[in-house]
Write a structure and sequence with these properties.
The protein is an alpha/beta fold. It has two domains: 171 residues, HUPs (Rossmann fold); 111 residues, Pantoate-beta-alanine ligase, C-terminal domain (Pantoate--beta-alanine Ligase, Chain: A,domain 2). The strands form two sheets. Strands 1-4-3-2-5-6 form a six-stranded parallel β-sheet, sandwiched between helices. The chain has a three-stranded antiparallel β-sheet with strand order 7-8-9, covered by helices on one side. Helix 8 links the parallel strand 5 and strand 6. Helix 10 runs antiparallel to helix 11. The protein is globular and about 55 Å long.
Length: 299
């Protein structure tokens, strides 16, 4: 069993047009390849809700901030196709750069507001690249549903906003972050961690969880964030880019927990940048157990 690979827009649209004539419900799962369990969980979710599923594989040069990062990103199309085949994916859409950005390409999709701050502050132009390629992929696939993970929560909100603002007729389906047994959010970057770094890495999720518990139980936000920042660095992370409480709906910064929120962080272990986030709900709806200050400081 193998997955048919399509490389051009006309070929993709011809397949989709035939499915439409059959009355099929179509889903797309955009990826940059190097597929892991996080990606495969999105594919399984898509297969449960749609008759036909397209997985895209395109390493998008426009969302990388450095040429070295782009060059280092793994290209594993053959392995990715082998992982998708037993799941029953209908098409692997793997266009080349010349198909996505032909000569003379001059358009950029830029989403304000939700792209500002957090990763947007440290990766200038990144979300313009994401918004541009996702817009193209959604228009090319013409799917009813598109699946994205919550691990890249700011990216998810950027996609939701561009779909709303540009009237793209697709439902964005968010899927929970998939984690290793020790709590580390699964990422293609994890394989680049040294053995020592891999032992430290789960501390980020653990500290976020404890901080979310404290905030959800009514602890002061500023103090809790300050304690969590110190705990992340004490755990062995070399540098913390940000740790912030933001409104879940529009990513507005919060100093008090008065609405559903996300605690979001980005931190460096050696040369590897890891991101994570935890949902935090106001007290009346909160099912999280509060953590003591002592637990967080020892986290």
């Amino acid at each position: 069993m193998s997955v048919p690979i399509v490389r051009t827009v006309p070929d993709l649209r011809a397949r989709v047009r035939a499915w439409r004539e059959e009355g099929a419900r179509i889903a797309v799962v955009p990826t940059m390849g190097a597929l892991h369990e996080g990606h495969l969980s999105l594919v399984r979710a898509a297969l449960r809700r749609a008759d036909r599923v397209i997985v895209t594989l395109f390493v998008n040069p426009k969302q990388f901030n450095s040429a070295s990062d782009l060059a280092a990103y793994p290209r594993t199309e053959e392995e990715d196709a082998a992982k998708l085949a037993p799941l029953g994916v209908d098409i692997l859409y793997a266009p080349g750069a010349e198909e996505m950005y032909p000569e003379g390409f001059a358009t950029t999709v830029s989403v304000g507001d939700v792209s500002e701050g957090l990763c947007g502050a440290f990766r200038p132009g990144h979300f313009d690249g994401v918004a541009t390629v996702v817009t193209k992929l959604l228009l090319q696939a013409g799917a009813d549903l598109a699946f994205f993970g919550e691990k890249d929560f700011q990216q998810l909100q950027v996609v939701r906003r561009l779909v709303r603002d540009l009237d793209i007729p697709v439902e964005i389906v968010a899927c929970p972050t998939v984690r290793e047994e020790d709590g580390l959010a699964i990422s293609s970057r994890n394989v680049r961690l040294s053995e020592t770094e891999r032992q430290i890495a789960p501390k980020l999720a653990e500290i976020l969880r404890l901080a979310a518990g404290r905030i959800g139980a009514g602890a002061p936000v500023d103090r809790t964030l300050a304690d969590a920042r110190s705990a992340i660095l004490a755990a062995g992370y070399a540098r913390l880019e940000y740790l912030e409480l933001r409104s879940e709906e529009d990513l507005a910064p919060l100093s008090t927990l008065d609405r559903p929120a996300r605690l979001l962080a980005a931190a460096w272990l050696g040369e590897i940048r890891l991101i994570d986030n935890i949902q935090v709900m106001p007290l009346p709806q909160n099912g999280l157990a509060g953590a003591s200050d002592r637990q967080l400081e020892e986290g």
